[in-house]
């Protein structure tokens, strides 16, 4: 079994081989002047076919998720060349695995017939994953091609918000009654031959389909075969409703070490299940989204056009420009002080920079606490005072270091005191902003991670310059 590092290295090796095969210069170019053109074209075609055959063999035995990683790492032209080689065999599975932005480039390269054929190979929950990227006429044709049960299931999944349990659940479930023996259960399992993926328990239901409990597979193995299901099943079951948020479900899966869990309606009728792989996919996507959101970005194809990348990035750059102009005007207010004490120009970026770093540390902790539902109205004041205390202690320690450093450089004791005081005050400001900005965004119903880093940096830059230059003006001039 390959570990993560080995897998990463093998994918890098494959990417290098793909680059070599697709980018290999035509080895027959030097015969243009010495061979008949017809013979040249024949050799050229044979060479290209051999490269394509080697490339197809290279990709043929890869898992769809590995192919997806490779496609995401290739520029558009080469991505489509590789896609042309692999899409005829497991295109549906690959479309599910790739990121949304890359999926759109692949779908754009397929006609409606190919898309419909690819989607028809997928399970209902997998179709739901890519439905938003399918053309409307293809989705309609797909719905018409499904049987009544699967059509209703797909329409049900699509009716729920993206970040809900209903959007993540699948319908591949194994159910049993509570009045049968474990021997009957074993016979039933032998008859169906294959259990749904990630099955660690069977769902026990009554005659109307309402959930009664779950029967872990391990209990079937270790218990006497003549015991009835109701005597060994667990009734202390974690249940989800389709309206529950995926975030709450992911927390429950982590807290209770779940592999699968039943999804029920308001009358506790079993309608589907939630599996650990769906939850892990959600957590991974949320983690990637949060990293991008902290700097005001959305998901972006690494090899998208320049214009698309500009469209993705311009908004928060514009906000950053405005905040930078504000910071520059703060500096402008104290131009006279800087002219008289030139050392201020060299030292003020240090105060602002460390304040921004400290504020981002605080923001990251608060965003994480909000995600884990650890922040309540009753503990906000405690969190704020705690972060101010941390900032005060850090300010005293590092402010003293920087104050001493300023004294050594410029031989001015008062400048050292100003540096220390400015560092303390700016770190306190960064702590307050680091707590309040995510809380305010969350209170307004916004994602607290979106742009928090940009806003914190803006506040600590402007505030840091004002505090440092203001103190310097009062003390030194």
List keywords for this structure.
3-stranded mixed beta sheet; 477 residues; Tetracycline Repressor, domain 2; MgtE N-terminal fold; 21 helices; two-stranded antiparallel sheet; mainly alpha; CBS-domain; 3 domains; globular
Describe the structure in your own words.
With 477 residues, this protein is mainly alpha-helical. It folds into three domains: 4-159, MgtE N-terminal domain-like (MgtE N-terminal fold, Alpha Horseshoe); 175-275, CBS-domain, CATH 3.10.580.10; 306-476, Tetracycline Repressor, domain 2 (Orthogonal Bundle). The protein is built from 21 helices and five strands. It has helices at 4-23, 37-60, 64-72, 76-97, 100-108, 112-119, 124-131, 136-145, 148-158, 165-168, 182-192, 217-222, 229-232, 246-256, 276-293, 306-333, 335-340, 343-371, 380-410, 413-443, 452-476; strands spanning 175-176, 201-205, 211-216, 260-264, 270-275. The chain has a three-stranded mixed sheet with strand order 1-2-3. It has a two-stranded antiparallel ribbon with strand order 4-5. Strand 2 (201-205) and strand 3 (211-216) form a beta hairpin. The chain is globular and about 90 Å long. The protein starts with a helix and ends with a helix. Residues 25-37 have low confidence and may be disordered.
């Amino acid at each position: 079994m390959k570990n993560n590092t080995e897998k990463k290295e093998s994918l890098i090796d494959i990417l290098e081989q793909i680059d070599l095969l697709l980018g290999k210069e035509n080895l027959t170019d030097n015969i243009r002047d010495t061979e008949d053109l017809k013979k040249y074209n024949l050799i050229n075609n044979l060479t290209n076919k051999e490269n394509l055959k080697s490339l197809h063999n290279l990709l043929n035995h890869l898992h769809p998720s590995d192919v997806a990683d490779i496609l995401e790492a290739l520029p558009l032209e080469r991505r489509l060349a590789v896609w042309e080689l692999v899409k005829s065999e497991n295109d549906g599975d690959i479309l599910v695995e790739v990121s949304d932005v890359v999926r759109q480039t692949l779908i754009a390269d397929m006609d409606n017939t190919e898309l419909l054929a690819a989607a028809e190979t997928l399970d209902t929950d997998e179709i739901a994953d890519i439905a938003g990227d399918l053309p409307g006429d293809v989705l309609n044709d797909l719905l018409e091609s499904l049987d009544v049960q699967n059509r209703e299931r797909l329409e049900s999944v699509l009716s729920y918000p993206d970040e809900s349990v209903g959007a993540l659940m699948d319908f591949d479930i194994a159910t049993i009654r509570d009045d049968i023996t474990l021997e009957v259960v074993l016979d039933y399992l032998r008859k169906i031959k294959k259990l749904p993926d990630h099955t660690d328990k069977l769902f026990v239901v009554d005659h109307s389909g309402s959930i009664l409990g779950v029967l872990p597979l391990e209990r079937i193995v270790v218990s006497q075969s003549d015991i009835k299901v109701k005597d060994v099943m667990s009734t202390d079951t974690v249940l989800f409703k389709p309206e529950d948020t995926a975030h709450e479900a992911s927390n429950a899966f982590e807290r209770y070490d779940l592999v699968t869990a039943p999804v029920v309606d308001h009358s506790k009728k079993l309608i589907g299940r939630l599996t650990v792989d769906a939850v892990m996919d959600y957590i991974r996507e949320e983690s990637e989204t949060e990293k991008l959101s902290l700097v005001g970005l959305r998901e972006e194809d690494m090899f998208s056009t320049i214009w698309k990348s500009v469209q993705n990035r311009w908004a928060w750059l514009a906000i950053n420009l405005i905040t930078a102009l504000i910071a520059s005007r703060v500096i402008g207010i104290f131009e006279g002080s800087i002219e008289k004490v030139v050392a201020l120009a060299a030292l003020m970026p240090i105060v602002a920079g460390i304040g921004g770093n400290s504020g981002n540390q605080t923001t990251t902790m608060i965003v994480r606490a909000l995600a884990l539902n650890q922040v309540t109205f009753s503990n906000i004041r405690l969190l704020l005072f705690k972060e101010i205390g941390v900032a005060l202690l850090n300010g005293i320690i590092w402010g003293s270091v920087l104050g001493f450093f300023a004294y050594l450089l410029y031989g001015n004791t008062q400048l050292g005191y100003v540096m220390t005081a400015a560092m303390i005050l700016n770190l306190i400001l960064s702590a307050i902003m680091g707590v309040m900005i995510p809380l305010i965004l969350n209170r307004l119903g916004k994602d607290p991670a979106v742009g928090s880093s940009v806003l914190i940096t803006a506040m600590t830059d402007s505030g840091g310059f004002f505090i440092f230059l203001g103190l310097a003006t009062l003390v030194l001039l």
